[in-house]
Design a protein that fits this description.
Blueprint: H1 2-15, H2 17-24, H3 35-54, H4 61-80, H5 94-103, H6 106-109
């Protein structure tokens, strides 16, 4: 389920680049003035955390959530800004790249 969330996150960002940049860019420094934006931006964190917990993980959920969200978010930024192409690191496409990167965490999700 974590991989499915990561796939959705990167697809959303790819299809909605201006919104993604608004949500996570530097244009809006103070989310307190934009509560809906803050809620939307934080939803992916909550979904990843819930998926990790639903998988039976009880320890280090916050650390795993931070690690996975950071990796997915950074990967997303690199891909949509065209600084990283899946084929340049041995993946056939974006879906395979996400699967391989989430796979690095598999041992911690069991």
């Amino acid at each position: 389920r974590v991989e499915a969330l990561a796939q959705s996150y990167i697809r959303f960002a790819s299809k909605n680049q201006p919104l993604f940049h608004l949500m996570f860019g530097r244009d809006v420094a103070d989310f307190s003035a934009h509560p809906t934006l803050a809620l939307t931006a934080g939803k992916s964190w909550s979904l990843i955390s819930a998926a990790i917990s639903a998988g039976g993980k009880k320890e280090n959920v916050a650390t795993l959530t931070a690690s996975i969200w950071s990796m997915v978010h950074g990967l997303t930024g690199l891909v949509i800004d065209k600084r990283l192409k899946p084929e340049n690191i041995g993946a056939a496409d974006l879906s395979e790249l996400v699967g391989k990167t989430i796979g690095l965490f598999a041992v911690h999700l069991d």
